[in-house]
Design a protein that fits this description.
Order of helices and strands: EEHHEEEEEEHEHEEEEEEHEEH
Oligomer: single chain
CATH superfamily of the largest domain: Pseudouridine synthase
Radius of gyration: 19 Å
CATH architecture of the largest domain: 2-Layer Sandwich
CATH topology of the largest domain: Pseudouridine synthase
């Protein structure tokens, strides 16, 4: 399986994360000579650089993904990319304890995907949470994947979200620049922490409804749960978020967060493409309660 590093991190720490294996198991795999970085055998302590290609001759029992038929909302498709409007509740790729019913299972039933990110995350250039709806681009071959990954790392990809948040935001616009990492209190959650990775979110108010505010957000970085963590951090958590904010849930459809606009340069034509999507019914149903 093949991975592409997106941060500076020790090789063994990186593999423990992407393979979901213990450090001792990862150490054995590296010592066996089955790990190559940029086509060279290396050591566990190597510090990876952004863009390094890691090949691992290893497969756990859980890495075999079964293609499954799924209704896919395909916004655009050609020989290189697919733009998907992801439905509510759909996990993007398999992970421990969740190897069926993911978007990747459905895509593999439909077409071939790149293998840059290994067998567990074929084609996945970027992802959104299970209960976040909206647009994401998937790569059908390695050339397209590597190009799109570079565009994303260089902050050239345009990603705009719409969210409904608790509270009445006074400022018409703003920027949240606060590092995000694993929570020191609850390791299952992310949080703003001093030693976290740089995370920058821009927002502007679309409409105020008294108790809630409808906003547009533009990501400059793409950290796990970034919008949800940042909005909770400034005191305006996403409505219906079951994890962050500690507010009441209005129903069980998940947070009011939608990846509405996606723009990127096509890996072959080199032309800029931009796609837009409508707010899903689950989001609109909650929004109507405040209008």
């Amino acid at each position: 399986m093949r991975f592409q590093a997106d941060e500076e991190i020790r090789l063994d720490n990186y593999l423990a994360k992407v393979l979901d294996e213990s450090r001792s198991q990862v150490s054995k795999i590296i010592k066996s000579g089955n790990v190559f970085v940029n086509n060279k055998i290396t050591k566990a302590g190597l510090i990876l650089k952004n863009g390094d290609i890691i090949d691992v001759n290893y497969q756990s029992e859980d890495d075999s993904i079964i293609p499954e038929e799924m209704d896919l909302d395909i916004v655009y498709e050609d020989d290189d990319v697919i733009v998907i409007n992801k439905a509510n509740g759909v996990v993007v790729h398999p992970a421990p304890g969740n190897y069926h019913g993911t978007l990747v299972n459905g895509l593999l039933h439909y077409t071939k995907l790149s293998d840059v990110n290994g067998e567990a995350r074929p084609g996945i250039v970027h992802r959104i949470d299970a209960y976040t709806t909206g647009l994401l681009v998937v790569a059908k071959n390695n050339k397209a994947h590597e190009f799109l990954a570079r565009e994303l790392a260089d902050k050239k990809t345009i990603r705009k979200y719409v969210a409904l948040v608790w509270g009445n935001i006074k400022n018409d616009s703003g920027t949240i620049d606060a590092p995000i990492g694993r929570s020191l209190v609850d390791r299952k959650k992310m949080a703003v922490v001093a030693n976290g990775k740089t995370a920058i979110t821009h927002f502007r108010v679309l409409k105020r409804f008294g108790d809630v505010t409808l906003i547009e957000l533009k990501l400059e970085t793409g950290r796990t749960h970034q919008i949800r963590v940042h909005m909770d951090y400034i005191g305006y958590p996403v409505v219906n978020d079951p994890v962050y904010g500690g507010r009441k849930l209005l129903d069980d459809t998940g947070q009011c967060l939608h990846a509405k606009t996606l723009g990127f340069v096509h890996p072959t034509t080199l032309k800029y493409m931009e796609f837009d999507s409508e707010l899903p019914e689950c989001f609109l149903n909650i929004l109507k309660q405040f209008e």
